[in-house]
């Protein structure tokens, strides 16, 4: 439409400009960015950023955290065997052991239990387990609760198997600073190098209250930090509660993206972690959640070697990426 003086009607111009802006916005929103960098023994980064600005912001936040002087435990000095952490009869009034405690060691774990998952525990460094059943003569003559305590060797291994069973939407209680997963029939948690499962054979309020009391007693008896120190290497601000994961190797984290081939990331001894971060309020165009990750190696030379190998992997597979300083920024829509 044209006016008498030849000018285009203003609403049409405005509509055209809005359409162009919408088209650009739609194109931008289809992009995902992965940002990766290194510091000392760490390779760290973010997945799922919707813009370069957001990717670099979160990468900078992780950089601040991973530069903290934090010791990563290779072993735990606690020498208390799992069997000594099992509550005795009548430590909770009217609750007694149904029989003597039993143990599993090494590759004998769950060999006599149908539908068990010994492989999962061995992947997380299992060393020894002790278990015992409890009954309450006032309720029944048969066992109602079983407690299992696993020595996983390190705090990272223990938290790793706990975090593999837990999701942010699960019901979590905090008992003396330790986050405890409550499901319909089980209570699970990790503290120090120990992973603990409390199984209830029947459902009742009294049985659940007793299980929680057992959990509190065990937590109090384990003299160790509530969480592994490696988790402090990732930002705590904007962290989604109970999204933390520890993987027993970099291979475990490789499932997060096809970019992270297990043949590229390196050796079996690597610890890798991830958390989910929510967007700051000022990042209005960011996604609701972004994954932050970190891989911890034994020495800096291994980090340099793996990082170089990773960049060659990107080139060979024709991924679009750029280098900004020491940071690798990968832009792709297919493999995030």
Account of the protein in words:
- The chain is an alpha+beta fold and 336 residues long.
- The chain has two domains: 29-72 and 232-332, no CATH class; 82-221, Protein Transport Mog1p, Chain A, CATH 3.40.1000.
- Helix content is 28%, strand content 26%.
- The protein has eight helices and 15 strands.
- Strands 3, 4, 5, 6, 7, 8, 9 and 10 form an eight-stranded antiparallel beta sheet that branches.
- The longest helix has 20 residues, at 10-29.
- It is elongated, with a radius of gyration of 26 Å.
- The model is unreliable at 1-28 (pLDDT under 50).
Structural class of the helix and strand makeup? alpha+beta
Helix and strand pattern? HEEHEEHEEHEEEEHEHHEEHEE
Shape by Cα distribution = elongated
Name the assembly state: single chain
Q: How many H/I helices?
A: 8
Low-confidence runs (pLDDT<50, min 5 residues)? 1-28
**Radius of gyration from the CA trace?**
26 Å
- Indicate the mean pLDDT: 82
State the total count of DSSP E strands.
15
Bin the strand percentage: 25-35%
Integer tally of domains: 2
Largest sheet: 8 strands, antiparallel
Q: What's the N-to-C terminus distance?
A: 45 Å
Helix content: 25-40%
Write a short abstract of this structure.
The protein is an alpha+beta fold and 336 residues long. Helix content is 28%, strand content 26%. The strands form 2 sheets. Strands 3, 4, 5, 6, 7, 8, 9 and 10 form an 8-stranded antiparallel beta sheet that branches.
Which structural traits does this protein have?
single chain, 336 residues, alpha+beta, Protein Transport Mog1p, Chain A, 8-stranded antiparallel beta sheet, 7-stranded antiparallel beta sheet, 8 helices, 28% helix, disordered N terminus
């Amino acid at each position: 439409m044209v006016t008498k003086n030849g000018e285009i009607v203003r609403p049409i111009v405005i509509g055209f400009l809005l359409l162009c802006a919408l088209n650009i916005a739609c194109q931008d929103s289809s992009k995902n960015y992965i940002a990766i960098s290194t510091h000392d023994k760490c390779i760290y980064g973010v997945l799922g950023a919707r813009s370069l600005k957001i990717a670099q912001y979160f990468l900078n936040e992780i950089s601040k955290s991973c530069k903290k002087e934090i010791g990563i435990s290779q072993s735990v000095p606690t020498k208390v065997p799992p069997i000594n952490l099992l509550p005795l009869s009548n430590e909770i009034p009217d609750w007694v052991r149904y029989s003597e405690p039993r143990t599993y060691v090494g590759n004998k774990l769950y060999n006599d239990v149908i539908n068990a998952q010994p492989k999962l525990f061995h992947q997380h460094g299992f060393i020894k387990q002790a278990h015992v059943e409890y009954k309450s003569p006032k309720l029944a003559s048969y066992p109602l609760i079983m407690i299992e305590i696993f020595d996983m060797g390190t705090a990272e291994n223990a938290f790793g198997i706990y975090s593999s069973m837990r999701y942010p939407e699960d019901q979590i209680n905090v008992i003396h600073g330790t986050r405890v997963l409550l499901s319909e029939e089980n209570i699970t948690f990790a503290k120090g190098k120990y992973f603990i499962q409390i199984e209830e054979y029947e459902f009742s309020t009294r049985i659940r209250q007793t299980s929680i009391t057992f959990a509190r007693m065990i937590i109090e008896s384990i003299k160790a930090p509530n969480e592994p120190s490696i988790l402090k290497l990732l930002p705590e601000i904007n962290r989604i509660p109970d999204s933390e994961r520890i993987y027993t190797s970099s291979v475990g984290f490789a499932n997060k993206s096809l970019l992270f081939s297990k043949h590229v990331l390196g050796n079996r001894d690597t610890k890798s972690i991830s958390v989910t971060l929510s967007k700051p309020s000022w990042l209005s165009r960011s996604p609701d959640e972004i994954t932050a990750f970190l891989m911890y190696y034994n020495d800096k030379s291994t980090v340099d070697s793996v990082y170089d190998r990773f960049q060659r992997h990107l080139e060979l597979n024709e991924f679009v990426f750029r280098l900004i300083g020491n940071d690798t920024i990968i832009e792709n829509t297919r493999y995030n």
